[in-house]
Every structure is written in structure tokens, then in C-alpha cells.
Amino acid sequence: MTGIATKVQHSTQLRKPLTALINQGCKPVGGIFRLDYDSAVVLTDDFKKHEAGGIPRGGFLLAVAGDSTESGFILEDQEIILLRVRGTAPLPNESELIQTRLAVVRDAGASGVDFDDVTDVLTRNELQQSAFDCEVLGTFYTETDARDARVEYGADIDNVVVSARYQVFLPGTDVLSWIASYPAAADERDSLAIGKVRFAATRRKALLAGTDQADVRIDVSDFVGRKTAVFGMTRTGKSNTIKTLVTAVHRYASEHQRTIGQLIFDPQGEYANVNRQDGTGLRLLGDDDRTVRIYKVAPDSRDSREKTLRLNFYDRDVLDAAWSLVSDATAQVNTNYAKSFRSADLSEPDRQDFSAHNRWGWALVAFYGLLAKCGFTTTRFPSLRVSLSQDNAEAFLEENPNAISPAGRGKYSVDSPASALALATWAGKRPAEFPKWHDENSRFPDIFGVYDYTGVTSAIRTIRPFHGQESTGDVAELLWNDMVAGRLSIVDLSSGNELVAKVMSERIVTHLLNKAGERFREDAEPLEMQIVVEEAHNLFERGGREVADDPWVRLSKEAAKYKMGLIYATQEVTSVDKRILSNTSNWLVAHLNSDHETRELSHYYDFRVWAPSIIRAEDVGFVRMKTYSGKYIVPAQIAKFDHAMVNDARRAAGLNAIPSAEGAR
Q1: What is residue 526's DSSP assignment?
Q2: Which of 34, 178, 465, 546 has the most Cβ atoms closer than 10 angstroms to its Cβ?
Q3: How many CA atoms lie within 13 A of 90 on its CB side?
Q4: Each residue of 563-611: pLDDT tens digit?
Q5: Which candidate, 405, 409, 408, places its Cα nearest to that of 394?
Q6: How many of the other CB atoms lie within 10 Å of CB of 202?
């Protein structure tokens, strides 16, 4: 075929999807001289590498069988093998080349001339030959040769032909972006440009070649209802990544008119407040508490978005919550007294079971007395009516005037925490006069038994910041209602210590799981929600408990059927239970400083290839990313979270854009 017929044929071939891809700015860098199903060795030279703009470790290469023509490169078949550079490989004549290079260096040094002056052209060309060891990632292919055929991807190759037929190309900027973003989101609205492709800490060659501008786009739906891990040392951009993802999901929910609540556990207060440097923050996604709610120990009454995080531990309506927090706070105290204390059940029995109800009242006296002993004060104490014999009441009142008051038919009213403490102490020290208070069916002695043990009382004092005299309602239930309404809720845990944050967050997650479980058993439509955990190593307890006792493992196992997503950020891969890691769909890994951590990471996907770079490169925002729909790990420089992202999400929600300066004020 010659002349015009050849040109027409080539023109037709060039319009096929993968042929068009190769001819879209891809630069030839060499050919394959050894290929198997898992790896390839690519022969290249210094000139080709220079012309292509450099070939970084971890970089993508495209191997195709075909021919170069005046019209462009024509593929023999509509398939492209995707390679990743792992390192260099020795050439078959490597030992001879080393001897020649040694001679050149020696002669040039001895004569004081340039290297080129002691070699001829042919020798110089030979010395510039080198090879790359590459991993075979998979194959892009089309099922037909039609110009509109869909490009598919397989994570292997299904045939090995004569390797000399394969030529290798370095993707240009547009093609690199296409590879890094494959597969594209089905709905264009769900496509988020999360950053730019970045293979190395040193970026000079990428800047000159323009590949530093290759976008990495993700499908936001990958992050809804699934587990996402964000790993990296402090100040490597974890919070920036999380803010970007939370904002993207918020926008996604608005654009698709879906109710997706998001709950952020914020140990440092960085999500709850506006960043003073750039004048923006997640709280600006809403103007009032209909969209955003921020739970703080000390909320600003002038801002409707801010709510109290505190419970009134004396409020009978939140007795279960108060008891749960107190018993969880003492979990690390393993004495027999502490174990007996935690075994107490403060659930209110049937009011018609007078004996059981009386014992419950005595246990409450001990519990509220214990809170008073640990410094929990209040101006709102609901009267507690307890059964008490007249003789015991009179003896107690003789030494504690006005501590209790008659409430009719053998009942007395306890009207303050101080009165509860006084009565509990009196009865606790006199088991002979209060036999029923101390019998085997009573929980009073289990609670009173820790009064004089500082390990327990000290642990209870740590949760005192979360006691509010004027608070009403259960925060966990309020947060469930927020999730039902599709709000963004931020729980600011910066006012408590690590134990308090752990106890509070676990209790909230347990409550959400239980409520979601109830809804599931009722065959109601699950509520979509996202839970975000910053500094997860302080909250997760790897392998320490059974699934039923560990809300985070329960979340990883049960969340899929409840449509609950989890984003967790931590410096320590090893701090995360393997059951959580095994159920994680999205991975964004920045700098880790320990091979102990990278060894654990290397058990998942092919992060082993990236371990040296992860340890060495400390650049902020430089991550290696594997998403749920993504077919391979993509290295990326995550874009900086900015006010434009917030305003895009606001507009999607029907709110007016606001200037960042206003947010800063």
C-alpha cells in the first residue's frame, strides 16, 4: 500500500483510542529487551532520557507493539502495557561497559582533559546505554477496534510476544493525567482534582518537562461509605487532605441531593476553628446550625453553630451516658474493686418491682456521692427519693442536719450531691445498720467500695471537663440527629486529655453504631454518614479487645451495611487494628520515618515499592495514593485546601460565596 492509500490508512489508525493516546505528546525512550508476565527490562540511553525530560523512579512507562510512520506511531494491536520504573537493571554487557567507563575516567583524570576527549563517538554512544527494571502493572486495551471503543484495564498481561516488537514511551502531561486519574468518574460532577502527579522529591526535570502540571483526579464517590486511611508524620499534610475530602463529600451530597452526615473527631481544635493564616475552615461550609454544628466544652453563645459538648452527669435522662463515661474512664484500673465497680448496672428497673427499685435508688446515692467526691458540682440536682428506715434517717440527720428531708411512706429526698456523698459515706461505713444496702443483690457496695481508692477517683476526675451544670440532653443522641439531618458536625476534643478523648469518641461511635443497627433491623433505609478520626493512634487500640468491645473494629466490619464511612488519620500504621486495615478501601500515604511502619504498610497493595521514597521524602502533601476504583498506586502532590473549595461547596448547597477575610473575622 503506497501513496494516498497509506496516508488514509494511517489517518484511520491514528483515530483509534489507544493509538491516539500514544501520539498525544508521549515521547519515545527506548524498547523492551526482556519481558515476562510480571516485569520488563527497558533499554534506553542518556539522549532519549534527556529528550523525554527525565525518567523518575516510580514513573509510568507505556510499552506498545507497532511501527513509527510519518503520520505517527501506529499500534499493531489496540493494547498498551503499563509499566512502573522500579530501578535500574544491568545490561548483558554491563561488565564490559564498567571496564570501559573505568578506563575513560582514569585516562581523562590522568591527562586533565574532558571525558569526551578520550573517547570516540561510537564509544560514547555505547557508554550512554542503560536499562530500567520495570514492574508490569497491567494492560490498557479495547475489546474492538472501533474508534469509539471503551478503554478497559486489566491488572496483568495475557500474552508475551517477541519483546523486540515493543517500543516504550514516557507519557506526556495530558496522558500522564489520564493514567493517574483512570478510571474517570462516571459523573463529571464527582471528579475532584485532588492534586498533581509527583514522582520524586526533586522536581526540576518535571518542571522543565511540564509533567508537574498533570492533574490527579479522584472519584469522590469512592470516599462515601468506605474506609479511608491517611498516613503520615506530623506536618506532612494529613489535615489538609482531610479538609479537602470532607469539603468534597459535602459538595457531592448537595449536588446529588443526598443526605450525608459527617462527624469529625477533632483532638487539636484545628477543624472546629477558622485558620488564621488563610481565613478559611470547614465551619464556613454553613452559616448556621442547620448545616454545621461544632461541639465544644466552652461554646460561643453568639454563634448558633457552636453547641456544648458537656453532659450534666446528675441529669437522670443521661444516666446511662454518664455511667458509661465514668466506667470507661476507669477501664485502665484493673483492681478487683475497680472491676466490681464497673460491673454495677445502673439501669432503672421496673417501678413495680419495689425491692429492685429501692436497691437502684441506693446505688444512685453511691454514684452521685462518688461524683461529688470527685469534684462534680451542679446547681441543678433532680431530687432523688430513696427508701430509708426512720431510725437510720434520724441517726444520720443528727450528724448531718438538713442533708435529707422526708418524702412520705418511708422515703427521703436527697437534694444535692453533697447530701448524696454524706449519706453514701454514712451508710457505707455501717453495713450492720444498712444490711439491705450491702447485701448480695445490691450494687451500692460495688460503687461505695472505690471511694477510698485514688486510682479510680483520679480516673473519674479526668472526665470532669465534660460535665456541664446547665447542660441538657445526650451529646451522642444529638450527634445521631445531626447525621439524620445530613449536617457536618465537629467534636472538639482539645480541652480534654487523651483518655477523655478516647472515652468520649468511643461512646459516641458505639451509640451511632447501635442506632444504625436498630434502623437496619427495622429494615429501614440506612443513613449515609462519614466519621472522621484525626490522630487515630490515640483512639484506636490495636488487637486489645474483641470486636463487640471495640467500636472502631465494629465500625470497620459493620459499617458497610449501615453505609457508614470512616476516614482515619495517623502517624502509625501499626497502631491500627489489622481488621480495620484489611477493610480499608482508600489509602493516602505521606512521609513515615520508620521502616517498622513501612514494613506493615508493605503488606497492602504494592506499597513495598514505595517504602524507600516514603521514608526519605518529607515534603508536605507528597502522598502515594490508592483509591477504591483506582487500579494502581498513584504518587501525587495534594492541592492545598483553600477558600475556593469552601465556596464551591457553598454554592452547591445554595449558599452565597463568602470572602475568606470575612471568615477570618
Answers
A1: P
A2: 178
A3: 7
A4: 999 999 999 999 888 888 988 999 999 999 999 999 999 999 989 999 9
A5: 405
A6: 12
